[in-house]
Amino acid sequence: MAYQETKKIMNEIVADLTQAHMLVHQHHWYMLGRGFLNLHPYLDEVMDELSEQQDGVAERLIEINGSPISTYEEVLEKTNIADQVGSWNLSIEDRFQLIVDAYKQLRDDYERGIKISEDEGDDSTNDLLIAYHTAIEKRIWMMSAELGKRPGDGE
Ligand SMILES: [Fe+2]
After folding, report:
1. How far does residue 124's CA lie from ligand 1's centre (Å)?
2. How close is the Cα of 28 to the center of ligand 1, in Å?
3. Ferritin/DPS domain location, by residue (predicted)?
4. What's the CA-to-centroid distance between 148 and ligand 1, angstroms?
């Protein structure tokens, strides 16, 4: 069947985007401390980006005759991002580091997806994944800068 591996990685990306959205929501809710008034609304912007990409990848998957995952059970089975219970006892820096780490997982997912869709000749998916990867890298840079780090620090 056409684009078989592309479809598989796209569902993994949908799982990680869904899980990342929940992670960001958790820190948007549980955040305490200096910077809250700016960083709490900033995370709304981050969640909008994740939702837009989730919908975009899932809809492109349907266009190539795939079936996007659509239950939390499937998300948990496929995601590469750890599930952690919410805690009030984390610094804002720790929270942003966890979000940057999730974004780095998404960056790696997109890099695999870009390679696989290129190998299978699905140019339009390839183009979409490249655009989303670019946005993810920009966000990694900005959130790393907020932490006083370069985007590649810690890798
Ligand atoms: Fe909110």
Report:
1. 34
2. 7
3. 8-149
4. 25
Alpha helix stretches (DSSP H) within the chain: 4-30, 36-63, 72-78, 92-119, 123-146
Q: CA–CA distance from 119 to each of 108, 129, 154 (Å)?
A: 17, 14, 30
Q: List, for residues 35-74, the tens digit of each pLDDT value.
A: 999 999 999 999 999 999 999 999 999 999 999 999 999 9
Is residue 151 one of the residues assigned to a domain?
A: no
Q: Give the CA angle between residues 131, 100, 132 to the nearest 5°.
A: 10
For tokens 């078989």, what's the residue?
Answer: 4
Asked whether residue 152 is assigned to any structural domain, the reply reads no
Average pLDDT over residues 97-109: 98
Give the range of the structural domain holding residue 122, as residue numbers without chain letter.
4-146
Instruction: Give the number of domains in the chain.
Output: 1
Residue 71 CA, ligand 1 centroid: distance in Å? 23
Is 40 a domain residue?
yes
Q: What is the CATH number of the domain that holds 42?
A: 1.20.1260.10
Residue 153 included in any domain? no
